[in-house]
Amino acid sequence: MAKLYVPDGAWLVCSNGMKKQQIKVTSQGKVTIAGGYLKATVDDRPGGNFMCGKMIVAGAIIGAVVGLALVAGSVLSGGALAVAAVAAAGAAAGAGVSLIPSICGMLLHSWTPFDTNVLTVGKNPLLENSQIPCRLGGNVMILYSEKAADEFTDLTLGKTLINTVGVIALSYILYPALAAIGTTAVTAQTTFATFGAAAGWNYLGGAVLATGTAYGIGWGIDQAKGGLYSVVPTGDGNTVKTYVDGFESDPEEIVKNYKIANSNGDKALYEHTNDVGGAAGVGKETVGNRTSTYYEQTSSQSIRLDDIEERGAVQTSSANRINGAIPGRNPNVGDPYRVVTGSDYGGRYQVIEENQFTSNSQYSRNDLSLKGSSGMAYNSGINALKDNFGKPTFDPAKGGAKGGVQGGGFYMGLLQDAYKGVTNFILKGQAEDLMKALQGEEAAARAKITVLSGKD
């Protein structure tokens, strides 16, 4: 089927772009189409940047990760608020990068497909379905109507703003869960290094069991909520679940399909994590603190006569030692000291007592047998339910305002679902506006291009 050619000034949009551009024909100055406009070829490019939304969202994500690392490393104080602030700064930095002149041009590949059967002044002409892939994953596409291009970028702008706000908000709400994950990783690494593989795998086994149980409970709660949402009408022929799950809001897909398709509504891992609340109960109360310190003292008595010394048996006593616990690899061994407890014959005969103190860390292995594991799973479930249905805590003294939201995962999940439902409703309206423009103004503009490929 014959394709339309592309005239100078045709509108260009990027699937990640918040700003439209026009193609600038500089590759040739002789062949015109569509009422005197120069015909575009594979050597022609957009006239400016598209203001990449992906750079902004990526900046926010990178900012959140950096903020979390700085807070965890005590380089930055303020907990979750600091992480959210760094995420916002990252989004602003991403916006700044997206405005650097010619940044989009440097990231674009080559047009494909194009008309391989015709040469225009020695160059292959572009077709209506020609696209330029971007190295950041987007696609630059051709539209013939400014109205369609405006609706396209409006939808992309809406998605970018919603995603950016979501990243910043989630970096605050999810801070306790993220911090718990980070703490688990650091503790596991320290356990391996300090006590060896047996203790390290033992700790990880307990952490995985506790986390898996909490995740399963969160998944079950999600299913229950989804079932409830599916029977609550919204008055427009849809249900709450329709909007919480979302609609096809990718403008590129809408241009390709001319339709809004309901998404599958699968939840991302971070959303399940959010539903288990602050994760404080699950991690700390279930897996627990398995390390402690014990002390040992060795003592011996010896008798010396002139230069001859006879040492007695060495006696060892300990305090706080747990049976079966794994000792640390780097004990703190004090210097031995000797005390003369008896002397005679002018010092020729002496009774000497020698002592040495050692302190060391120890790892107490919880029982991960079938019985022990079932008990841990039970405790994990109880603590996960407490995290879900307990009252959310924002108290600064308990790490709330600075440490994010502790507990109340179920209620945080409801807020998250409400956020998704409202924003998807907004995006649905914008997507419908784009469809109308494609079926109206875009179709009319395309009808004015009468020159088809193969008929030049």
Q: Descriptors for this entry?
A:
alpha+beta, six-stranded antiparallel beta sheet, 12 helices, 47% helix
Largest sheet: 7 strands, antiparallel
Morphology: elongated
Low-confidence stretches: 261-270, 272-279
Radius of gyration: 34 Å
- Regarding quaternary structure, what we see is single chain
Cα separation of the termini: 15 Å
- Work out the number of β strands: 15
Into which percentage range does the β-strand content fall? 15-25%
Mean pLDDT: 82
How many helix segments? 12
Helical percentage: 40-55%
Describe the structure.
The structure is a single chain. The chain is built from 12 helices and 15 strands. It has 456 residues and is of the alpha+beta class. Strands 9, 10, 11, 12, 13, 14 and 15 form a 7-stranded antiparallel sheet that branches. Strands 5-2-1-8-7-6 form a 6-stranded antiparallel sheet, with helices on one face. Strands 3-4 form a two-stranded antiparallel ribbon. The longest helix is centred in the C-terminal third of the chain and has 39 residues, at 409-447. It is elongated.
